[in-house]
Amino acid sequence: MPVQRDVTASGIRVRVSESGDGRTLLLLHGLFLDHTTGDPMCDALPSGLRMVAPDLPGFGASEKPTPGRYPYGIEALAEAIADLYAALELGRASVIGQCLGGAVALELAARHPELVSRLVLVNPLCEAPHFGAYGSVARLPFVGGFTFKQLWTRAVFRAFFRDRLLAPGATVDPARVDAYYQTFSEPRARASALETLRSTFDTRGIVAKTRGVRAPTLVVWGSANRVVSPRLGLKLAREIHGARFEVLDAGHALQEERPLELARSIASFLA
Hints:
271 residues, alpha/beta, 43% helix
């Protein structure tokens, strides 16, 4: 049974879920999600692993400071995770990052190679995400903020999840989507998510550091990813020395659609 506790990282209260014992596996979730997105996948991984899954600052049950107090961006999030290593005495760890968490994992591996023993990137944001009209509206000054904070109802959130994060025709348990919305619906959470979303539209900083990653790396992409094209996944894998590239039949939220297949790929890579 996972144990949850709060630790301080970069001056922010971060909620962390931990389970198991053995080699450390750090899981970083995607935009609009929280640490529970990895639960189905983790349940299928072999024993002998210490699973550490934080809610990134601004998400889940972690603190949601105002944008004026915390610079929501890939570099700031990566530094918070590096600080988390010290707080939890993790040593070196294998890191799995999905979507936003994938970009954070890339930044972490490039900036702090001593912390990352192995790297798994699941549909990481290595270019500006294609969120369709949802993302375009969010980028607009004033109108975007109002729309995102006031008009993203449960129905809109469900439609966004279906239309952008999943493969056409794919379904996930509606209760999981509603749980993500429940956390997102808080005003402070919406403000944090909006600032983080806006910060991901310029990925030049993280792309420039890709060639500096030295950890053994697995890049996993959904063939029906509508947020970041699979061709970018192949390009990313070619730029990271010795990286392995795999494609699964799924969309952007691969860990929600194909948790068992993803777990098998990760288990094989870690072994």
